[in-house]
Amino acid sequence: MPVTPRQHATKGGSALQTAWQRVDGVIRPQGYVFRGWWLVAAAAGIQFFASVLFANSYSAYMVLLQDEFGWSKTVLAGAFAMTRVESGLLGPLQGWLADRFGPRIVLIVGNLLFGLGLMLFSLMNSILTLYLTFALMAIGSSLGGFPTLMVALVNWFDQHRSKAVAGSQLGYAIGGLAVPLLVVALTEFGWRATAFVSGLIVLAVCVPVSALVRHRPAEIGEVPDGKRPDIAQDAPGAAGSRRDLTAREAMRTSGFWLLSLGHACALLTVSAVMVHLIPHLNEGLNFTLLQAASVVTLITACQIIGQALGGYLGDRYDKRIICVVCMVGHSAALLLLAHAGAFDGWWPVTVAGIVHGLAWGARGPLMVAMRADFFGTAAFGTIMGFSSLIVMFGMSGGPIIGGVMADIYGNYELAFTVLAAATLSGALCFAFARPPRARRVA
Q1: Distance (Å, rounded) from C-alpha 402 to C-alpha 416?
Q2: Cα(82)–Cα(70) distance, rounded to whole angstroms?
Q3: What are the C-alpha distances in Å from 247 to residues 196, 263, 292, 382?
Q4: CA 81, CA 398: separation in Å to the nearest integer?
Q5: Would you give the distance in Å from CA 135 to the centre of its chain?
Q6: If 87 and its partner were Cys, which of 137, 142, 202, 390 is the partner (CB 3.0–4.6 Å)?
Q7: Would you tell me the crossing angle of helices 35-50 and 103-121 to the nearest 10 degrees?
Q8: What 3-state class would DSSP assign to 27?
Q9: How far apart are CA 114 and CA 200, in angstroms?
């Protein structure tokens, strides 16, 4: 009769070993689910709420805030862009804290700040208080979200890293599917009540889930990917066969800069669409608010499909080539959105939404997996943090460029065209990125 992981651990063995047993000469799993996949589920849940309550819903808030206060698109886009700048500047410190003290405490503090920020946002009544509450939400959502979660995930997975990251990001994508529900809440109850309740949800759900996160599998007697110790040590992609780089060593390589610049170029399109898609469809193409939100849902549905493809393909083929194809897709989709008014019907917007969603979904998990493949996991949080100083220019630049040019020219056509060209240049960055030669140990 097989013993449980806990029983086996008390006998001096590894909790992991109880997941396998030799049956008829073959090593077979005994129904024990590797706890790394529970971590993936927890990360997906946290990102779901960050997505539906803030990141993917801000463009809907933007329409209502402009109607109530009469503020320009530049002012409103600037608030969102500021959150990206703050997250970028916070990155190196956040990464060091996660590496040094573990991601769990950073996640708990971050989600506390994020929830309080949403509640205070519901009370704001001026540009100053708008920016102050957004600053608090930016710090909270960054500390309590994606960058910190990835520090844990890359330590729990090696050969299945792309699939694990993709699985965690499904939460963010599914949150985008729920944006129409938030739009209904905004319409029925107003943006202030919706924001306040959103803050309560973060405090009630995300904070407790954050407490479940563990930094490394060794903390509970596991090894990366949930393999038996002898397999984990001998596998070609095992962590033991590679030397992890320090943040300083990583930043001396061309791969660090090319990956960061390519990521920044991709986020020019992603951030512009997040902030300006609904205003563009509502004002430029005469979509209703709910119709525009349905396009966000389409993008998110395709993002989910793309994440599954990216996770599967990224663990089998060259991640760089996949990213090059995705960058071309981002650029083509933004061009189609820019000039959709020249065509009749929904088809240009529909095609653009499908292409952008697939490209975003497939590329997203590879940004994390490639950095871990290139530089290792020992200083991953710090490396990711310094990379965010570069990436933030893409995440903040997209909304600002789109807002300023839309205010000047009265539409988004030229703004989206310029951003599409800039995004395409990121394909070259991924094409020329190479892992450090000294990465593997003889």
Answers
A1: 7
A2: 20
A3: 39, 18, 42, 6
A4: 8
A5: 19
A6: 142
A7: 20
A8: strand
A9: 10
Q: Torsions phi, psi of 26, nearest 5?
A: -120, 135
Per-residue pLDDT at 4 exceeds 70: no
Long-range contacts of 228-236 (CB under 8 A, 24+ apart): 228/16, 228/17, 228/20, 228/27, 229/14, 229/16, 229/17, 235/158, 235/159
Q: Which pair of structure tokens corresponds to residue 273? A: 């669409």
Tell me the mean pLDDT in the region 180-185. 86
Q: What is the pLDDT of residues 303-321, one digit of tens each?
A: 889 988 888 888 888 889 9
Please choose, from the candidates 403, 95, 376, the residue with its C-alpha nearest in 3D space to the C-alpha of residue 249: 376
Question: For residue range 381-411, what is the model confidence (pLDDT) as tens digits?
Answer: 888 888 888 888 887 788 888 888 888 877 8
Phi then psi dihedrals of residue 20, to 5 deg? -130, 150
Spatial separation of the C-alpha atoms in residues 80 and 78, rounded to whole Å: 5
pLDDT-derived band at 33, boundaries 50, 70, 90: low
When computed from its CA atoms, the radius of gyration of the chain, rounded to whole angstroms, is 22
164, two tokens = 């694990």
Q: What is the pLDDT of residue 406?
A: 80
Ramachandran class of 318: left when φ > 0, alpha when ψ lies in -120 to 50, beta otherwise: beta
The one-letter code for the residue type at 27 is I
Question: Which residues on adjacent β-strands are paired with residue 26?
Answer: 23
As given in the structure block, the two tokens for residue 433 are 């990125």
pTM recorded for the entire structure: 0.69
Closest CA to 338 of 356, 324, 326, 364: 356
Q: Which two tokens stand for residue 256?
A: 């660090």
d(C-alpha 36, C-alpha 153), whole Å: 8
